[in-house]
Amino acid sequence: MTKYIYIIRHGETEYNKLQIMQGRSINIGLNETGKNQGDLFYEKYKDIPFGVVITSELMRSQETVHQFTKKIPHIIDERITEISWGANEGKAMDESVKLRFKKMIHEWSNGNLDYSIPGGETGTSLSNRLQSFVEDLKKRKEKFILICTHGRALKMLITKLLNQSIDKMEKYKHSNTGLYLFKQKGESIILIEENNTEHLL
Fold first, then answer.
1. What CATH number did the domain enclosing 60 receive?
2. 36/201 Cα distance (integer angstroms)
């Protein structure tokens, strides 16, 4: 059976607009721009016969696809929620925040997935929960699946679906409601569209 997996990042929040790091513990909804992005995505893809919609437990994820979940089975799965950014959560992107972030990326890229921003989630933890999610996702019977997740979780999720090493994460860009479309046939998964934002034009 051939399956199509549509994965998007949530719409814009005020924290996105102000360049404040969100993470797992920041649970705010979409701003007006984000709501409009979700509406535009819905208008573009409402005729796709999705069998299930999967979101994290956070408001910004659920609100982005709320028009789909009015009539399509909805699963809330905490495994695809955003990483905990620890000391960086709720902080504007000043130099100290950027340095902690860059240090984490450096450590992960060099294979130290046990590293985390102080008080935050390790790469190992994020990797394990998303690997578990992908294993279950591959077994799902729906031919069309819609997933709404978060920036860092999305990057890790892409590498898991494509069976790539963690250091490939940084090459994948993510815009608010940007679409990554995958095609699965048996155990084979290929990437068809990357961060597609045509619905916003």
1. 3.40.50.1240
2. 12
Asked if residue 54 lies in contact with residue 77, where contact means CB atoms within 8 angstroms, the answer is yes
**Residues of the domain holding 60:** 2-84+122-200
Number of folded domains that form the chain: 1
pLDDT digit string, tens, across residues 44-67: 999 999 999 999 999 999 999 999
Picking from 44, 41, 51, the residue whose alpha carbon sits closest to that of residue 71 is 51
User: Is 115 inside a domain boundary?
Assistant: no
Structure tokens at 97: 């925040």
Contact (CB, 8 A) for 145 and 49: no
166 pLDDT exceeds 90?
Answer: no
Cα diameter, the chain: 49
C-alpha–C-alpha distance, residues 107 and 39, integer Å: 38
Domain assignment of residue 107, yes or no: no
d(CA 7, CA 181): 6
User: Which residues contact residue 74 at a Cβ distance below 8 angstroms, ignoring those fewer than 6 apart?
Assistant: 52, 53, 54, 55
In a domain, 61, yes or no: yes
Confidence of residue 167 (pLDDT cuts 50, 70, 90): confident
Report if residue 93 sits inside a domain. Answer: no
Residue-averaged pLDDT of the chain: 96
List pLDDT tens digits, range 118-151: 999 999 999 999 999 999 999 999 999 999 999 9
